[in-house]
Design goal:
Elements (H helix, E strand, L loop, with lengths): L1 E10 L8 E16 L4 E6 L13 H9 L3 E7 L9 H16 L6 H16 L7 H6 L2 E5 L2 E5 L4 E7 L5 H6 L7 H20 L2 H7 L6 H5 L5 H10 L4 E4 L6 E5 L4 H14 L4 E7 L5 E2 L1
Parallel strand pairs: 3-4
Antiparallel strand pairs: 1-2, 1-11, 2-4, 2-5, 5-6, 7-9, 7-10, 8-9
Length: about 290
């Protein structure tokens, strides 16, 4: 039996729609795999009652097929589904790393990224790598059609998860199909600033580079209280705030000593809008780990 811990992630980071991603140090999924003649899946943990166990309908089923690695798979969910924290990606990433090890397929971590992305397609309809890449590789990742680049960094984060459901498919429907040149130029500049900030481990640059005039405003409208939560986080010391992935989680970048204050402010702002929420004080961290 192989056991893997696959971390939650945040994709987009505002200005890097479908490209940027980061791995968290928590929460995480725990995936256990054992050789079997036929693939079966058992799921426990947060939101497990909403996740199909049929391999044809679960993200790990596509991973099993791609690696030709039938197994009995146990998934202990630490990352809530429909959270904007890469829940389906964590399971797919963890399964890819675990099955590669179990069957000694000899694939590199980078080679496992597109395989795990195929698992993501089961849920979102498209094989995006912006969540599975950081969950497998760790750090800050840039996923393009040419492959994935990653860099280790030390940036403090706060993720606030409200008790609101926003599906990836719904969040993609509100994305604008066109953009003006001024907005494109602004977004490119912000994305470049964020990338430099990640490489330098500079939370001020990262926060400034998260601003996004294109996708985030449309997705923010799906999250009750978003504007108030963003303002509260900034007032408490956050250097930047955006929607995490497809939402509804709200992601804040901050200096290490400000995480507690930022998290508390975000919770209070959601509470003022009668929305229950929980907060993760976390940081950019390593990818999937074989336990």
């Amino acid at each position: 039996m192989i056991t893997v811990r696959a971390p939650a992630t945040s994709a987009n980071l505002g200005s890097g729609f479908d490209v940027f991603g980061v791995a968290f140090d928590r929460p995480a999924d725990i995936i256990r795999v054992e050789r079997a003649d036929e693939t079966t899946i058992d799921i426990t943990g947060v939101g497990s009652q909403y996740i199909p166990t049929d391999p044809d309908s679960n993200t790990v089923g596509a991973v099993v097929d791609a690696l030709d690695a039938p197994a009995h798979i146990e998934i202990d969910k630490g990352v809530r589904p429909a959270s904007g924290l890469g829940s389906s990606a964590a399971s797919a990433a963890g399964a890819a790393v675990a099955l590669n090890e179990l069957y000694d397929r000899g694939l590199s971590r980078s080679e496992l990224v597109p395989i795990a992305a195929e698992g993501e397609a089961v849920v979102s309809g498209t094989a995006h790598a912006d969540n599975v890449a950081p969950s497998i590789l760790g750090g800050f990742t840039i996923a393009t059609a040419d492959g994935v680049e990653s860099v280790s960094t030390d940036i403090s984060l706060v993720a606030c998860l409200p008790e609101i459901a926003v599906s990836t498919r719904d969040a993609r429907r509100v994305v604008p199909e066109t953009a003006g040149m001024a907005a494109v130029v602004e977004t490119v500049g912000n994305a470049a600033t964020l990338s430099v900030g990640m490489c330098r481990g500079d939370p001020d640059l990262v926060g400034r580079g998260m601003d996004d005039p294109l996708v985030t405003p449309a997705r923010a409208e799906l999250i009750t209280g978003y504007d108030a939560v963003r303002e509260a986080a900034i007032d408490a010391g956050a250097t930047g705030v955006t929607v995490s992935g497809a939402g509804p989680s709200v992601l804040a970048v901050c200096r290490d000593g400000d995480r507690r204050a930022v998290g508390s402010a975000m919770l209070s702002a959601f509470d003022a809008h009668e929305v229950d929420a929980r907060v993760y004080q976390t940081q950019v961290s390593d990818g999937a780990t074989i336990l």
